[in-house]
């Protein structure tokens, strides 16, 4: 397909942010019964998929995978199949909230800690008053609480389910419970985006974004949630990704 480029076996979309937004909006507006699973994949996730069989299954079953990282864009350019731009989870979330505000969509937010979750939803209520909040729950739940969360999502049937439990855990959680999430039109992970929306983490300055250095800003300034790997350890995957995609013949 002309709109797909394979990077280490991961089929990345070559759609722009605007084109991706329109495609997702069409999915929600068509009111299709089948859940549409979008993955925002960066070099770390791409590299992890080389040895993680479950992640490979999830990637092969996804409806769309977008390039959430400048490394993916550079690797595609190296292959002679350029991707026009990054499509990050944060930018997609903002675009979908704008569309949801315009069209009256409902959203369910699952992830991050309780205080951040509540503050993020309060900010969304203020900035996007026509968005319907179908529900929310923090991401630090146990097995007993999980069934209640699933029941709440099934009851509320949100148009869009936003997962903020970190990658690839968000996608693995979705894959495990995909058959139970009937009525949801669209689901995708947004990493630490709710931390930014809540004000807990400051967004990268414009100059960092223009230089494609948002990853460095997160590395230096964004806090790491309890139980997650250190950002320095996670970024150690980048040299391996560069070698596998750009240096090795």
TrEMBL record:
Source organism, top-level taxon: Bacteria
Keyword Hydrolase part of the UniProt annotation: no
CDD domains xrefs: Glyco_transf_WecG_TagA (cd06533)
InterPro entries per the UniProt record, alphabetical: WecG_TagA_CpsF (IPR004629)
Record's keyword annotation contains S-adenosyl-L-methionine: no
Entries under Pfam families matching the protein: Glyco_tran_WecG
UniProt KW keywords: Glycosyltransferase, Transferase
Protein name in UniProt: Glycosyltransferase
């Amino acid at each position: 397909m002309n709109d797909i480029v394979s990077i280490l076996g991961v089929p990345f979309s070559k759609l722009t942010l605007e084109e991706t937004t329109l495609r997702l909006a069409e999915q929600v507006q068509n009111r299709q019964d089948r859940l549409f699973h979008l993955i925002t994949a960066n070099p770390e996730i791409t590299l992890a998929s080389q040895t993680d069989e479950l992640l490979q299954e999830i990637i092969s079953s996804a409806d769309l995978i977008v390039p959430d990282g400048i490394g993916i864009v550079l690797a595609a350019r190296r292959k002679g199949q350029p991707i026009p731009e990054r499509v990050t989870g944060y930018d997609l979330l903002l675009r979908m909230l704008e569309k949801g505000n315009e069209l009256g969509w409902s959203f369910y937010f699952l992830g991050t800690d309780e205080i951040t979750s509540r503050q993020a939803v309060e900010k969304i209520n203020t900035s996007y008053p026509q968005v319907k909040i179908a529900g929310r729950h923090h991401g630090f739940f146990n097995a007993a609480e999980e069934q209640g969360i699933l029941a709440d999502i099934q009851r509320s049937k949100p148009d869009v389910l936003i997962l903020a439990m970190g990658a690839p855990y968000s996608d693995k959680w979705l894959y495990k419970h995909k058959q139970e999430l009937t009525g949801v039109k669209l689901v995708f992970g947004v990493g630490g985006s709710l931390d930014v929306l809540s004000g807990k983490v400051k967004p990268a300055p414009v100059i960092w974004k223009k230089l494609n250095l948002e990853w460095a800003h997160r590395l230096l300034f964004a806090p790491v949630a309890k139980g997650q790997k250190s950002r320095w350890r996670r970024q150690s995957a980048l040299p391996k990704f560069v070698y596998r995609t750009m240096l090795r013949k």
